[in-house]
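Subject: for your reference before the review

Hello V.,

The reviewers asked for a structural picture of the protein, and I figured it would be easier to keep everything in one thread rather than splitting it across files. Below is the amino acid sequence we used in the manuscript, unchanged from the supplementary table.
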Amino acid sequence: MPRVRTILLSILITATGLAGYLLVKGLNSQVGTDSSQPTRQAATKDAGAEAPQQLARIAKDERSIRPAADRQREVADCISPAELDSDPVLADEYARLDSVITSGPTIASYRGLSSAQLVGLAIQGDSAAMAVLGAMAVMRARNLSEDKAVAYLLREDPSVWSFSLQSPLEPEVMKHLEQASDWFYNAALHGRLLALENAGEIIAMVAGTPTELGWVEADEYANLAGYERYELDPATVYHALAFELAPELRSGPFGAINAELTQGGERQQVVLDELARQFSEDRQAAGLPPIAITKSSAMSTAELSAMLCEP
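And here is what came back from the structure prediction:
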């Protein structure tokens, strides 16, 4: 029951604001070439619509077995699901994560800037500008207006962030995607660590399968179960790399949820060790200072779920 409740709380959080983006990022499948396949984003959206009611029912069931005096004390302190996202208890957590994700208020503030303006900021080491430039390159690969780049990062419109490309990729499309991957990777080097997942999504399209990336032998990969392939999906691996590089990201309710979603086995760890080594060398070569991320002081998902009012 606690695990089910935690999962439902995470889905509830995903339905609103910055927190929603964080978990959707964790559930994203790589952008593939088969547009007929249902996306995990769509599944998350459907589940998120029902999550408040499901979570409330579970909370009611659990509270029903507690002493009446305890339930009475809870009434005065509880909050509704609608109030959860704006509650001050989460405000610091949103602010803590804004500098490491490719969504949120900082990214949104770059809407309307030209590529020339963004390049100027990127030259100064602005990781958010680099992330938007990466998204602009994705838009060019899809023959869309660069103005849609921020909407793509914010997951505002499924028609923008969910797409497919013909395989094999045309040379011009390949060039734009490689530029996108480079910008996202550089954004991560400059501290926006969860841009690594954006890079992983593009790397999957440009470089191919884990076998083509040299992470696992073809015959071994062919015999892997579905969840084992998911653990080696480039988007999953690069997302997990962020938590490998900065363990502080695992703290707090959102970090714990995302870290769990990308957790893999020994095969993934071997890849992560090599990617982390390369990432460290790339940062040193660029003369970049250590990435400092504060540990979360927010409550756990279990504590947050306990705050929800009984309907």
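For the response letter, the relevant points are probably these. The chain is about 65% helix and 0% strand. Confidence is low (pLDDT under 50) at residues 1-60, 62-66, 68-75.

Happy to draft the paragraph if you're swamped.

O.
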